[in-house]
Amino acid sequence: MPNSSRFTPVRASRPNVYTGSPLDRAAERRSDAAFIAAALASPDAVVAPVWRAQNLFQGEAARFFSTADALAWESDPQRWIFLGLWEERPVFALDLGHHETPHDLLPDDAGTFADIRQHGGILPAGEASVLAYARGLIHWQGRTRFCGVCGSPCVPASAGHVMHCTGCGTDHFPRSDPAVIMLVVRDDTILLGHATRFPEGMYSTLAGFVEPGESLEEAVRREVYEETGVQVGDVAYHSSQPWPFPSSLMLGFYGEGLTDAIEFRDAELADARWFTREMCRAPEAHGFRLPGPDSIARRLIEDWLAAG
Ligand SMILES: [Zn+2]
């Protein structure tokens, strides 16, 4: 799109990792107990086990089991979540988090529980999306065991998509926390930061949670200013990415940098600098590295590089 200013929004080149779900979520069937029971009993049904925020992998592939096998490990229906239909096959998530040693339940060749982020960038898109979905829902259930209104215990309902309060009857629904993540562009440079929690040498886009009563554009400008003192003008949307690690929805933007001077205001940010295209095309030669290939941060940088 022609733009008279130097700030030119860049379109997303391809879908982000953890998007592109192959599932029909079939939300209208979740409260149909007969349908869910038939789905669980279906010989085509499969399940993705989750253990304490880790998914199951065999080599570099996601590991699914038939529900018939998995029901022998865990028959409590409250630990099963209906995720949807994958080409008519019912897909469930199963929470094994209450077992100290889940491998004792599983066959010897079951694979290994691991953080999906170790595999997310190379898994087939559909598998990465389904596993992230399973992990996110189970995390939310675990954080919703008690009602935020009255403090009574909650129990899963609607095939795991509602936590129902046994005291006041409130239904609690899954939450995603909106977070803005933005690549600030000024002339032909971009602003990247090194947070204290990052691996050594990694520089990434700035990011932060949206606060109550705040628009996304306002959150972009506020976060950048809070962390670096850089003022942002125009803000342009790029793409979004589910980031259930543990419960975020990342909303990716480009921001027009209006000022150069960097002033550290946030203790979480150890460093921030302006980087050129040349530096970003060969980060190792310039003594830094870019964020992981599964992240929208990396995609924002790569799409900016490709546009220049
Ligand atoms: Zn309650």
What radius of gyration results from the CA coordinates?
22 Å
What is the terminal separation in angstroms? 14 Å
Number of helices: 6
What's the CATH C level of the largest domain? Alpha Beta
CATH 2nd-level architecture of the largest domain: Alpha-Beta Complex
Assign the structural class, choosing from mainly alpha, mainly beta, alpha/beta, alpha+beta, or little secondary structure: alpha+beta
Uncertain stretches of 5 or more adjacent residues? none
Ions, cofactors and other ligands present here are: zinc ion
CATH fold category name of the largest domain: Nucleoside Triphosphate Pyrophosphohydrolase
Model description:
The protein is of the alpha+beta class and 308 residues long. It contains six helices and 16 strands. The chain has helices at 33-41, 67-71, 125-142, 216-228, 277-281, 296-307, and strands at 46-51, 54-58, 61-62, 65-66, 80-86, 89-95, 112-114, 154-157, 162-165, 171-172, 177-186, 189-195, 206-209, 232-243, 248-257, 269-276. It is elongated and about 60 Å long.
Brief rundown of the structure:
The chain has about 300 residues and is of the alpha+beta class. It has six helices and 16 strands. Helices cover about 20% and strands about 30% of the residues.
